[in-house]
Amino acid sequence: MTATFTxxxxxxxxxxxxWGAEQLEALGRVLPEGPWTADLEQCTYQSGGRTVRVGLxxxxxxxxxxxxxxxxxxGLQGSAVVAASERIADFGRRNGVPELRTxxxxxxxxxxxxxxxxxxxxxGMGVLxxxxxxxxxxxxxxxVYFAPDDPQIPRANLDPITxxxxxxxxxxxxxxxxxxxxxxxxADHGVPVDVAADRIRAHLPDGRVAEVGFxxxxxxxxISATANGH
Length: 230
Prior knowledge:
The protein is α+β, with helices and mostly antiparallel strands. The chain folds into two domains: 142 residues, no CATH class; 65 residues, no CATH class. The chain is 35% helix and 27% strand. It is built from six helices and eleven strands. The strands form two sheets. Strands 1, 2, 3, 4, 5, 6 and 7 form a seven-stranded antiparallel β-sheet that branches. Strand 2 and strand 3 form a beta hairpin. Helix 1 crosses helix 5, helix 1 packs across helix 6 and helix 5 packs across helix 6. The longest helix is centred in the N-terminal third of the chain and has 24 residues.
C-alpha cells in the first residue's frame, strides 16, 4: 500500500494550498532559477545577482528517500539558519502534526517521494507565512530547501482577476477539501468571510465581494467577484 500523509498534515496543507501556489509564482518573478550559492552562517542565498536572507527548512536524501528537518541536522542545531524550522516543529507539537514535529520523515513508501518532499517544504512555508520556498540540488543525492525571510521578496496581493486560477490550482494540489483551500486562502490574505453551507463569500480589499460556490460533492462549482451590493 502506498504511504500517505496524516490527516492533520493534509489539513494544514489544504489551508495554505492556494495562497502557497500564488506566493510561489510571485517568488519566481523576483528570484529566477539559475546558479546559486548559500552561506548558512550568514543566512543568505544568492541567485541571479540577488542576495536574500533565508532560513533552512530541511533536506531530502534521494537515495534514502527521507526528509530531515533542518533543526535536527547535527551540524546545524542551535544556529540562526535553523530557527525557522524550529518554529515549524513548535507548530507541529501544538497542533498534533507528526510530520512537522519529528526529526525526519520516511518518504520511501510514497508513490512519488520527491513530490512528498516538496509537500513538506510547501507546508513548512505555509506554517511560517514565508513568501515562498526554494529547493535546490546540493549534490547528486541531496536537495536542500530554504524559506526566504527578506523584504525583497514581496507577499502577493489578492488579485480578483487571478484569484480563481489560484483557488482551482490549490484545490487540485491535495484534492481533499476545496472548502479548506478556499477558507485558508482568504484567511492567509486577512480577508473576512461569510460562510454558508454551499458557499463562502469574501469581502475583498477593493470593496468587491467574491463568492465561491460548492457542489454537492464539496467541489468548487463557481467563482465570482462583484461590486458590494450588486
